[in-house]
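Below is how a single chain appears once it has passed through the pipeline. First comes the sequence as given, then the structure the pipeline wrote out for it. We keep one example in the README because the format questions we get most often are answered faster by looking than by reading.
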Amino acid sequence: MSETARKAPSVPDPNRWRALAFISIAQLMVILDATIVNIALPSAQQDLGISDGNRQWVITAYALAFGGLLLFGGRIADLWGRKRAFVIGLVGFGAASALGGAATNEAMMYSSRALQGVFGALLAPAALSLLSVTFTDAKERARAFGVYSAISGAGGAVGLILGGVLTEYLDWRWTFFVNIPFAAIAAAGAYFVISEPEGGRNRSPLDIPGVILSALGLVALVYGFTRAESDGWSDSTTLGLFVASAVLLLAFVITEAKVKAPLLPLRVVTERNRGGAFLSFGLANIAIYGLFLFLTYYLQIVKGYSPIKTGFAFLPLVVGTTIGATQIGTRLTPRVPARLLMGPGFLVAAAGMFLLTQLEVGSSYAGLLLPTLLIVGIGLGTAFMPAMSVATHGVESRDAGAASAMVNTSQQLGGAIGTALLNTIAASAMASYITDHIATAATKPQQQLVQLQGMVHGYANAAWVAVGIVAGAAVIALALINVGRPKADSSTGEGPEAQVPVIAH
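Resulting structure:
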């Protein structure tokens, strides 16, 4: 083949925009599931007779399976083909959701949630890697990742809204059944519309030691943070899980450096731009999941909102994220270096979270929470769009699944860490406040007021930590990411010359 033919740009897939629609539906379904079930949990717990001590497993079973198998799912997508993995993941996720909706006891519920996690771990990396290899033109890639990032950033808030509507007006089972049409439409569309570029599979033998070490290490890490939230950071089991996770993940890194066909090629994470994107994205998710948790409690317990009203209260976050990703990020990504979007975007989000440090029992929604959610959404939407693109740009086609899995792993671990860490900080500050002020409360109403004030004081303290974390994400993005404006004819191919990012000097 001549040099000219070898370097000729590939012809864009004529169905790529329809493919984006079905990939987006699948991503929305996965992101929704992270929060939609939380709203329905009290009703499901009562119907199925799940004890207070065991109800956490409705959430934990999904988190452990999803977080522990993401790297494996990404490698399977590279091995089987992303389209095949995508369709299988959708069908399996839909079937697991049907099982959850039809659950008659807690064993069926836990099993369905674990299965959702297994198939989600196959589906999520396949979706992002399909997006990465389908859109190679710089401007089109920016638009596609803008849509995908808006869904990823706002999907959790949409889940709160939809969960509240379904639980209040139908039944908690519909928070599971609603996934079935999503999965069916996306699977049918993917089967008939999506076409995967030739020669992009990684047919190397499966790295079994890497699969085992990564799965056990990530499960121990996620479960450790789950235990820390419920049993405290000094609990012996919690500490044992963190130690076990550190040992297993260190062994995983050593193994990946030595085997010929690693599950996670270290070149995927050691390249400074992708490494910076993974790290900053994960840190931002620590803060955003903590935000979901605290504001949900604040609106329902302190302000007395119903589940559906609480869900709709998050709409400004959805609007802000959509504006940031599709209007700011998409329009500027082809024109400015990624760090000049990610850094300022994270700083804007940190400024929005700073407003929460002023939270009080009597704070008004319109005066404080609405601008907070809108500003945070705009900042995160602006930053997430280039972060996801940088995390998968320039990676060899055979490693697209692994890079995509790392994006999802950053999000999943960020959520687990944020929920546990910020909840612990809030609980500690709340306990100290109540201890210091309860003696001055002579009547029961005064004691109840001190309890609420202590709760809000705890949230405000946790908000300070969230501000620092997101500011740290901005510093990392500005310091590590040096990829410049994408070339107008940039593409993701298999030759090394197609993988070199444009460096801003």
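The radius of gyration is 22 Å.

See the next section for the split statistics.
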